[in-house]
Structure prediction request, 111 residues.
Amino acid sequence: MARLATGRWIIAVLAFAVIICTVAMTFGGYRLLDWRTYTAIRSVKIYPDIVDVPPEYTRHEEPSAVLLPGSTCRLVAQYAKDFYSSRVRCDNGIVGWTNEPEAFSPPIPIS
Prediction:
């Protein structure tokens, strides 16, 4: 009988942990199980930090990487303040923020 009760507690704790993680990821800005891939249709600058300004104002900032056309990415997080930024994880281990959602096919959705 003790094993049956212990097994139920383990299942209850794991279910509670999954629910808490799902809520934290959903309302924390992270997308859960976003399997869609976005392909860069032109060169895209990737920045190490959140970019709040339109692309024309970031001309002089130093990007951490530049994606070449044809690179595939997945959306990891989004940030909305004055302008939308998206955090993407791309080929070759490139991870960072971009403020050019229209540079991808399909365009990164602004939510």
Summary: The longest helix spans residues 2-27. The radius of gyration is 19 Å.
